[in-house]
Design a protein that fits this description.
Elements (H helix, E strand, L loop, with lengths): L1 H7 L21 H12 L7 H12 L4 E4 L6 H11 L4 E5 L6 H5 E6 L4 E6 L6 E5 L6 H4 L3 H6 L1 E4 L2 E4 L5 E6 L12 H4 L4 E3 L6 H10 L17 H16 L1
Parallel strand pairs: 1-8, 1-9, 2-5, 5-8
Antiparallel strand pairs: 3-4, 6-7
Helix pairs in contact: 2-3
């Protein structure tokens, strides 16, 4: 709800810090940030206007997204385009039946030189996490995301570790009739703000997508259009709020 309030209030005086607010400056509004991101991502993801709006709505409201669709519809490209548009760290985890929670969260390795254990962070310590084919992994591996998606933290070996303030999960899953899938439990489904599909584009749009990749993939030329500046944004908001109070 924090991001929804941020969209409704004046950005100059609102002290709220959310995924969307950290991309705003004194001269930009939440609507302008979303419009800029939408236009940039649409350069690569063509014919998916409705899906892009859903994705950005979940992103702005501090939620996560579950995409259920067949392979080859652009789910991975969509996640990469969002990450590059905001200059965020991106990591992808391919969920398989033999995946372990430690493969996601990280593990401690004994350092013989220092005579102590050192924790090696897993791929979950990032900004944009693509959990690819999440329903191919066992419920034990799926549960590794529960705490992270609900509280932006993980508990590893009895120690709580905080995730980056900007943390957004885009999970994909195959249709349930595919072989070798494990249906997500209700507790896991509740962590997603939206569940939708991309679907196939029209033949004309498909030709345009293929033509754009004739020499180089459009993602190779992708440039960020916005960056999260949490500390500077927080200082600006505090000054504006103080002046408004006085």
């Amino acid at each position: 709800m924090g991001a929804l309030r941020c969209l409704m209030e004046e950005p100059e005086v609102s002290p709220i810090r959310t995924k969307l607010c950290c991309f705003m400056t004194v001269k930009t509004s939440p609507r302008e940030v979303l419009q800029t991101l939408f236009a940039n991502i649409e350069r690569v993801i063509k014919g998916q206007s409705s899906a892009l709006r859903n994705l950005l709505a979940a992103f702005a409201s501090d939620g996560h997204v579950l995409l259920e669709d067949f392979p080859g519809t652009g789910k991975t490209t969509l996640a990469k385009a969002l990450a590059r548009s905001i200059d965020a760290r991106f990591k992808r985890v391919q969920f398989t039946p033999d995946l372990l929670p430690s493969d996601i969260l990280g593990v401690s390795v004994y350092n013989q030189r220092d005579q102590q254990f050192e924790f090696h962070e897993g791929p979950i310590f990032t900004n944009i996490l693509l959990a690819d084919e999440i329903n191919r992994a066992s419920p034990r591996a799926q549960s590794a995301l529960l705490e992270a998606m609900a509280e932006s933290q993980v508990s590893v070996e009895g120690e709580r570790r905080t995730l980056p303030e900007l943390f957004f999960v885009i999970a994909t899953q195959n249709p349930v009739e595919f072989r070798g899938t494990y249906p997500l439990p209700e507790a896991q489904m509740d962590r997603f703000a939206l569940n939708f599909s991309l679907g196939y584009v029209s033949p004309e749009e498909e030709v345009g997508i293929l033509s754009a990749q004739e020499k180089v993939h459009p993602l190779k030329r992708f440039q960020p259009v916005s960056r999260c500046t949490t500390s500077s944004r927080s200082n600006e908001l505090s000054k504006r709020s103080a002046s408004a109070t006085n």
